[in-house]
Amino acid sequence: MVVLKSVARVTSARLSSRAYSTVISCPSAEIRESLALESKIRPYNEVPGPKGLPFLGNSWRFLPIIGHYQLPELDKIMSSLHNEYGEIVRLGGLIGHADLLFVFNPNEIERIFKREETMPHRPSMPSVKYYKQVLHKDFFGDTLGVVGVHGQRWDNFRSKVHQTMMQPNTAKKYLSPLNQITDEFLNNLQLKRRDTNELDCDFMEELYKWALECIGKVALDTRLGCLNRNLAEESEAQRMIEAVKVFFANVAEVELRMPVWRIYSTPAWKKYIGAFDMFRETCLKYITQAMHKVQAKSNSFKNEEDISLMERILLKTSDPKVATVLALDLLLVGIDTTSVAATTILYHIAKNPEQQDKLHRELVALLPSENDVITEETISKSVYLSACIKESLRMRPVIIGNGRSLTSEAVIGNYKIPEGTHVIFPHYVVGNLEKYFPQAKSFIPERWLKTDECPFGHNKIHRFASLPFGYGRRTCLGRRFAEAELKILLSKIFRKYKVSYEHGEMRYEVQSTYKSPDPVRFHFADR
């Protein structure tokens, strides 16, 4: 069969029986290569990886007391799998879960991504899927969004919003309000500093308020008021802030542990669903208001640049549910990820004063006054800031791994991998390998620049060795907004303050994202 397919591929004319026998007896170079490759393909059971026990498989490794795999230490688990078994590792025998195939080679990751189908299947967030397709199926119907969804319904939704979301001009429209929101955040920061220049609160909690206010403006076309001081406990803004805290405090318990919530409502599940409901109701309220505004002034719109993201979506689809579900998805994935990314970048720059000084010099040249507005030009010229962001997210990506669920049999790393296997791309491990990033444990933003200041500055970095925003058709829909928010925030902070972190090395663990389980406390000294 392989020979026949190869013959069909390399010949354009029908072969006579004589010609056919000639090809078989004297195969071409391409056919010989195809046969050689076929002979190298090995069966799935030969993929290296930890061996399971009878009946328990490898599930015992995650059990309390007897197991040595802890989900918060998934970063260490993946590193040890790579160190012990190599670039392709199978973790099978997981009760109630598909086998996991870890791919630690960026060349192989690239091949998988570039061969994927038009509707790539990513292992879903089961709790989000359950919320949308079971608990509130009457509300969502077939309009399920992009989070926790796959197949035709995912593709249908994506096709309605992707072009609008990914246009550079869409994010550009929000630079002015994002500047205003960030200025308010920094004013609050100033008031919360002690005499030691350290905040009197957990910095991450303050970032959640900032990120929520940013997402509110982008996704709901409104200012929620999360940065207002002395909020009343019963105010919508305060209830949203509390919902964000509750949601992200419980999402890891719900998503990463055994899903007993399918059988009975655990305390974590009840809190999680309560916060989810708050998000959905808030989105519905503001999108309904936006729909009324659009209907009232639909004839006055001149061009797309004059209207908000949600107004564009509403005009394109005439379906408020599409805008509501998009806003909900942006809330679910945009608050924690952006806040964690900002914290990680701040931490790395704070721990490397030489790089911080270099960044400050760049910002002073671009922003002569610390009160200057961050514009599109500022963002495009802040090349060292961009390098700092890339380097930080290489070392500690917000999501330590990406994945796909195989919808058909595939050959990966010369192994035949069956349909249904969950293929994991461990960006955290690959991004910290010396063979792809020399001095990988050191914070060297210059490696991302073409510069003689760094011995690696002219090295070509494998584009699939670090993918903080994913790749392909399932890349992060809100990427342009997240990058704008981060660059505005970081530019304003490092233009105004000298930041330090004086609590040793920040501890990281895998929750819903890769972040510190401890309160985050930076020192912000005036420049």
What does this 3D model show about the protein?
The chain is an alpha+beta fold and 527 residues long. It has a domain at 136-399 and 468-526: Cytochrome p450 (Orthogonal Bundle), CATH 1.10.630.10. It has 20 helices and ten strands. The protein has helices at residues 2-10, 17-25, 29-40, 74-85, 106-115, 126-135, 137-140, 151-166, 168-172, 175-192, 203-220, 236-256, 267-297, 309-317, 320-350, 353-366, 376-381, 383-395, 427-430, 479-496; strands at 88-91, 100-103, 402-405, 410-412, 415-417, 422-425, 497-500, 509-510, 514-515, 523-526. The chain has a four-stranded mixed sheet with strand order 1-2-6-3. Strands 4-5 form a two-stranded antiparallel sheet. Strands 7-10 form a two-stranded antiparallel ribbon. The longest helix has 31 residues, at 267-297.
Count of DSSP-assigned helices: 20
Beta percentage is: 5-15%
Shape verdict: globular
Which secondary-structure class do the elements indicate?
Answer: alpha+beta
Helix content: 40-55%
Total DSSP E strands: 10
Strand order of the largest sheet: 1-2-6-3
CATH superfamily of the domain at 136-399 and 468-526: Cytochrome P450
- Write down the overall mean pLDDT: 87
CATH class of the domain at 136-399 and 468-526, anyone?
Mainly Alpha
H/E series, N to C?
A: HHHHEEHHHHHHHHHHHHHHEEEEHHEEEE
Characterize the biggest β-sheet. 4 strands, mixed
Termini Cα gap: 71 Å
Radius of gyration of CA atoms, rounded to a whole number: 25 Å
CATH fold field value of the domain at 136-399 and 468-526: Cytochrome p450
In the CATH hierarchy, the architecture of the domain at 136-399 and 468-526 is Orthogonal Bundle
Spans of at least 5 consecutive residues with low confidence: 1-26
Cofactor: heme
Protein name: Cytochrome P450 49a1
Keywords: Heme, Iron, Metal-binding, Monooxygenase, Oxidoreductase
InterPro entries: CYP11_CYP27_families, Cyt_P450, Cyt_P450_CS, Cyt_P450_E_grp-I, Cyt_P450_sf
